[in-house]
Amino acid sequence: xxxxxxxxxxxxxxxxxxxxxxxxxxxxxxxxxxxxxxxxxxxxxxxxxxxxxxxxxxxxxxxxxxxxxxxxxxxxxxxxxxxxxxxxxxxxxxxxxxxxxxxxxxxxxxxxxxxxxxxxxxxxxxxxxxxxxxxxxxxxxxxxxxxxxxxxxxxxxxxxxxxxxxxxxxxxxxxxxxxxxxxxxxxxxxxxxxxxxxxxxxxxxxxxxxxxxxxxxxxxxxxxxxxxxxxxxxxxxxxxxxxxxxxxxxxxxxxxxxxxxxxxxxxxxxxxxxxxxxxxxxxxxxxxxxxxxxxxxxxxxxxxxxxxxxxxxxxxxxxxxxxxxxxxxxxxxxxxxxxxx
Amino acid sequence: xxxxxxxxxxxxxxxxxxxxxxxxxxxxxxxxxxxxxxxxxxxxxxxxxxxxxxxxxxxxxxxxxxxxxxxxxxxxxxxxxxxxxxxxxxxxxxxxxxxxxxxxxxxxxxxxxxxxxxxxxxxxxxxxxxxxxxxxxxxxxxxxxxxxxxxxxxxxxxxxxxxxxxxxxxxxxxxxxxxxxxxxxxxxxxxxxxxxxxxxxxxxxxxxxxxxxxxxxxxxxxxxxxxxxxxxxxxxxxxxxxxxxxxxxxxxxxxxxxxxxxxxxxxxxxxxxxxxxxxxxxxxxxxxxxxxxxxxxxxxxxxxxxxxxxxxxxxxxxxxxxxxxxxxxxxxxxxxxxxxx
Amino acid sequence: xxxxxxxxxxxxxxxxxxxxxxxxxxxxxxxxxxxxxxxxxxxxxxxxxxxxxxxxxxxxxxxxxxxxxxxxxxxxxxxxxxxxxxxxxxxxxxxxxxxxxxxxxxxxxxxxxxxxxxxxxxxxxxxxxxxxxxxxxxxxxxxxxxxxxxxxxxxxxxxxxxxxxxxxxxxxxxxxxxxxxxxxxxxxxxxxxxxxxxxxxxxxxxxxxxxxxxxxxxxxxxxxxxxxxxxxxxxxxxxxxxxxxxxxxxxxxxxxxxxxxxxxxxxxxxxxxxxxxxxxxxxxxxxxxxxxxxxxxxxxxxxxxxxxxxxxxxxxxxxxxxxxxxxxxxxxxxxxxxxxx
Amino acid sequence: xxxxxxxxxxxxxxxxxxxxxxxxxxxxxxxxxxxxxxxxxxxxxxxxxxxxxxxxxxxxxxxxxxxxxxxxxxxxxxxxxxxxxxxxxxxxxxxxxxxxxxxxxxxxxxxxxxxxxxxxxxxxxxxxxxxxxxxxxxxxxxxxxxxxxxxxxxxxxxxxxxxxxxxxxxxxxxxxxxxxxxxxxxxxxxxxxxxxxxxxxxxxxxxxxxxxxxxxxxxxxxxxxxxxxxxxxxxxxxxxxxxxxxxxxxxxxxxxxxxxxxxxxxxxxxxxxxxxxxxxxxxxxxxxxxxxxxxxxxxxxxxxxxxxxxxxxxxxxxxxxxxxxxxxxxxxxxxxxxxxx
Lengths: 341, 341, 341, 341
What we know:
Aspartate Aminotransferase, domain 2; 2 domains; seven-stranded mixed beta sheet; four-stranded antiparallel beta sheet
């Protein structure tokens, strides 16, 4: 089965499974006081070259909404791009867990929020005016919902605007590894050095087994966040298992190797698609996602041929390459598409 | 290490791990549309002898608070025993996820809520009176926080009182298997036949790997609940893994066999403790938990001797027996305690 | 002082004050069980030619947010025009009181939401899709934030679209009387006959003393709404006083007479402004508000000359005519403006 | 009609009405920027002998819940007496407006919370423990729901316990004037000198027209609270009218004179009741409320005789004396009661 639906449909990395099995020896303290979990903060602090606090979380939606809940008062507003997952695809989780804060969706080329757009929006928001939701944070998705990647200078610029206005800065990194692989920079450069206060660190889409994490750079929010996570029912009792996953995920740069593999497949697929008439890539392929405009006839033909993908609108489909995908998948997709033409 | 701290410190059952590994073949639809997850409703409907809807959930806290969120308006009130986990040990999760409903904690012998207490409380609640929180549900913990078990006639009686007043009925079954093993009745008799609308079905404490479930008997709430779960970030993307766990957990009555083993250890330990002077069991041992009153000297002696347990107050400790515990643990505990005396 | 800042700066109608004074005789039941309050439902049912429930409310913000809280689940979405007061100027009250529902702001000519725009938006919202906020209601502002008025056929069309998709229909009638005066139709035609479920019925801006009302046409929500209002601290104890105001407000069509007076002043002012070079009316003057584009020099000149008005953006000011305004105010404004030119 | 139901059934003081009428001259800025409202902070700062911020609020329920919302995180807990109005009679307003904080109701003699009870409760609350609601504030009702009054030394002691544990201190002063009249001390001594951070300052029950106030002593919360009040729809547009009421209420100590009158009536009534056999006062009469135990026959007789009062349980009635009550009311009540005996 050729399956390009999502990175969510992928298997679990063998290294991650093996670490979970190893963690299953004997009894262990619950709720994160065990030996495995206690390594998390140190290991991720090393990875990010600064002291961080790490909270394993079962879903990206929870990681985002809980992170944001520690960055805004309930009467606050959070800027994001209009295509942001938190705005369109999380069922109102941010509104729930912040106590009703407001997402302010902005336009932006390349499915990215531009610092200049943010800088223009803030002065019209009515800071200090009592009948206006108060700007409290900005959130970016890295890589974006359309597979593009913020460059470091773009992140730095957004961070500078945020800082100048007293806004906190959140990154939805459901595909952080894919973005990092594309950027080729350090995790530090891609996050706190650009001013990120808190990161939703994706793992599930890139070989994890339902384990993402919140990585906190701004220590002022850590204690508050810990209470919010527990209260939302997002503190696992047998914490050693997600902790083991997250450790295995970054061990020996597994996360980067897996992401590079997925990105590479996407680049290869894109190259082949560009040679086919009637196919248009809607966005540059910078990480592991491709968005194609095709005729409805072609889309139907692909679907009937057993190719799995998601429709994202009329004449628009999404293809996601996975760490466990193959060149063969690509060839079969390209072949099927050529047969339509 | 002799570890009686909690059933949360236990390992994962081999059968459950094996099922997870099997689920890791190939790609699978996300968010519950995969083949494994799609078996859940049918398998649990068979188990409960009625049509149910099953939602895998990462923690018992989330299972409880989300279940209750579908049973009460935000201005509602939920009756529970004053020792209930939802009231004392879930960080206000119910208040968060219900939008601010109120827990009304009642007294009750044996750490159980009595139907008569509930029947007396309801008429004083001011049903229809606009400045009073409106009774909407009752929640029982089975087995209770102190290891006692509601008998079927007690559940039936509470269900009848609830029904007569239009209240919904929730069971926090974090240790449902242990209670069922103690009762020796069918899952149906212990739940919907007594009027339960929705059950928090524990698995993590009894051999699962961070997978509990909400089991819905009252179909009026299923759709609403599905949205609430997603919005709280409690819908896993790779649902096949928790689904595989839950299926393995009930396959061949593994859940009951594991619970019986834990209960048996508790009974054996209790029998031996009753023969030791200066030791008092605070509650009857009906499931897998024991609460002991001991001198502070004895408690210190045990702790220094490397015995792991939790303090629950001055002179009060809790011991929890696990499905993966041993008779040897018991003997070592008894020996250590005798040495204090 | 020539004061065009808002209808909120107006005095209280003598008839309304007199009614409050009359209500102050002897003791009276609290929370709406008094003789004056008990007349409200009947009187407004007569006015609207259908059975309604009326809840006096201290602010329009509360009237809107509470009305909406009874129309949407917490995971719901509410469509409105992008200029809507509930979206921009109520500090997130709707998000708070609905438990985190989402406002979906749509474009629309004339500062009005078009039925066709709504009809196009709904199918893209993902009804039934669990990770999307679920469309639950549509809200229109009558008259709009820019002083334009929905025609009856426009309301009917929106109501039809809403009904076809199972959405509830709310009207923010902070300036309902001004709109009704402009339309020249019955209150019934402008509300429930177009499908309105619940109306925020403004009074404070048109001669009331901090008394607006929620008028409920859809009886399914009345009981739920009553609890929500009380819980939000919006049920006055001495209800007879706001009730007396609202009765006086509709008695002998005072509300319409006051609104007609304000609208007439606005029309007269608009006519005179159209004769002045360099002045542009941004929106048609259909109720009691005018929005003018002027040079910054002119704006400064007016402000220095003691004319009171609100700035609404660069080169943009708002003028609001009041029931207690005068032709003299208009003449003085026009004179001042001519002096700038 | 002899009416002892509540101080909510009272008329409005002539001085307060007159001030509202005076405030109705000309136009005035909305939302508190007018000349009358701007006097509030200074006038109340003078009254309380310290700099305060004053927010007029339409109900006591809102004043309480909003005050508390600025004192606790959403995962916080608030201690109160088990008879507290916020716990039993405000429809869950505190739970709504705090985002789901928990009220922890404690026992206490004389319907008052004792400092020692609070001091014992705090260490068992699990401060810093992530699955426990975190103690954030304590709230006292002055005068209490049963008409008793906290002495200054009692308030000081509670304040000291609160301060020692980092808890904030709120006073529900729905009948603050009655308590102050009973204590005979300064407003300062009864509030911030005892450590009160924020006071719900009642006026409606003592001659106001639906105008209470929040008085803030702890300036750290003022800005946050201002946003919360606006967002809850509790910021009046025509603020000059409630402001005028509050100024008139404290002008020339009207509030104290009214409260003394009501208290005096209560004392006189109590004295006469003590001479009647079969009548028991449930609580000492320290302010303007009396709670009587009577036979059901007597209660029925009184009700049939046109005496108005509230039942508070089997054989228990409440009588409230008002600033506008009369000695004649008392005599008629006593006469009616003697006729039963």
